[in-house]
Specification:
binds pyridoxal-5'-phosphate, 2 domains, alpha/beta, 12 strands, Aspartate Aminotransferase, domain 1, 7-stranded mixed beta sheet, Aspartate Aminotransferase, domain 2
């Protein structure tokens, strides 16, 4: 049997924590009822579990249970937030503000809205990946209805200043949405303190199951109006129809509960491992850190490497370590990462990049093995490149 490579792609997805699996199990078999069945005990048991999960999730972000709308994940939550607000506030204005480094699950709905006649401002970022708050201030217009800025970037791990952005939006009575897919369970999130009006979440980035997420929708001060994008039985107070999926929802809540309880220790542990990896790698010349050095997710290290071909680098490493370059779709599109080019990286350095995503099950031995393999691969590729030139 061949050994599987070390998993350092925790930004793409995470394994489900065994404690989460255990919490989910009874809801596949014993408590299989439809939570919308109000006439019998099977339905009540499922409904009770969902009620509890909803309260756990709401507590985790300082919201109320009525403000949680379950979705299939962050992609759907982003679509519901952006299209739902654009449609509901159509009479008030048609301008949205977002950022060039957003996930495609925000950028693509924005492009779709542009095709329908909305106008979208895509803010640039500074060299460290953070937005410039004065650029945001200047982007507001009379007809701006929504600002969407992600909490943590999925490629470079950069944490945007949510509270400052929230304050800025609230002063102008403009709604603030944040895609918190990478941030939930990794950094503290408080929708009140940060003045967030809508927030997208997903379970599978935080050791929960795939296929479940939620959109937080503020109900008071201000009460956010949202046009539903999935019509049907009127589930989730009419905002998102479709039978709720108890095992996934129970697992989602358990995953978030565990992540919050373990956040202080995990932040410290992953930051230490990340710094260990970076200290080993940076002994090589021409290595560049992508994104702010401190204002980032504990488990993220994204680097560009001079003098090597990005594709050869990934090929050389793939039997040792499972990771991705800055951009997940470069093999199909052969375009450099839009995030790294937004930082001002040259095309060559945007191509020759590695995203290390560390997580709950990453060990110090794994980090040392990966560092050794990466150094050897970079050195041999540089040697080969020199040979070809000479
Ligand atoms: C993973 C991710 C998404 C998509 O989430 P799904 O639940 O897989 O749909 C959206 N935004 C960000 C920032 C992500 O990292």
């Amino acid at each position: 049997m061949t050994q599987r490579p070390i998993y350092l792609d925790y930004h793409a997805t995470t394994p489900v924590d065994p404690r989460v699996v255990e919490a989910m199990m009874p809801f596949f078999t014993e408590h299989f009822g439809n939570p919308a069945s109000v006439t019998h005990a099977y339905g009540w048991a499922a409904e009770a579990a969902i009620k509890q999960a909803r309260a756990t999730l709401a507590d985790a972000i300082h919201a109320t249970p009525e403000e949680i709308v379950f979705t299939s994940g962050a992609t759907e939550a982003n679509n519901l937030a952006l299209k739902g607000v654009a449609e509901a506030y159509f009479g008030k204005g048609r301008h949205l503000i977002t950022v060039q480094t957003e996930h495609s699950a925000v950028l693509d709905p924005c492009r779709y809205l542009e095709a329908l006649g909305f106008e979208v401002t895509y803010l640039p970022v500074q060299a460290d990946g953070l937005i410039d708050l004065s650029a945001l201030e200047n982007a507001f217009r009379e007809d701006t209805v929504l600002v969407s800025v992600m909490a943590a970037n999925n490629e470079i791990g950069v944490l945007q200043p949510l509270a400052e952005i929230g304050a800025c939006c609230r002063r102008r009575s403009v709604l603030f949405h944040t895609d918190a897919a990478q941030a939930l369970g990794k950094i503290p999130l408080d929708v009140d303190a940060m003045q967030i009006d809508l927030m997208s979440m997903t379970a599978h980035k935080v050791y929960g199951p795939k296929g479940i997420g939620a959109l937080y929708v503020r109900r008071r001060q201000p009460r956010v109006k949202l046009a539903p994008q999935l019509h049907g039985g009127g589930h989730e107070r009419g905002l998102r129809s479709g039978t709720l999926y108890p095992p996934q929802i129970v697992g989602f809540a358990k995953a978030v509960e565990l992540a919050l309880a373990e956040m202080p220790q995990e932040t410290l542990r992953q930051t230490t491992l990340r710094e260990r990896l970076w200290s080993a790698l940076r002994q090589l010349p021409e290595l560049y850190l992508n994104g702010h050095s401190a204002q980032r997710l504990p488990g993220n290290l994204n680097i560009s490497i001079g003098g090597v071909d990005g594709q050869a680098l990934l090929l050389g490493l793939r039997s040792t370590v499972a990771l991705s370059s800055g951009s997940a779709c470069r093999y199909t599109t052969l375009a450099p990462s839009h995030v790294l080019t937004a930082l001002g990286r040259s095309e060559a350095l945007a191509y020759a990049s590695l995203r290390f995503g560390l997580g709950r099950f990453t060990t110090v031995e794994e980090i040392d093995q990966v560092a050794e393999a990466a150094i050897a691969t970079i050195q041999s590729l540089r040697q080969a490149a020199l040979g070809m030139k000479g």
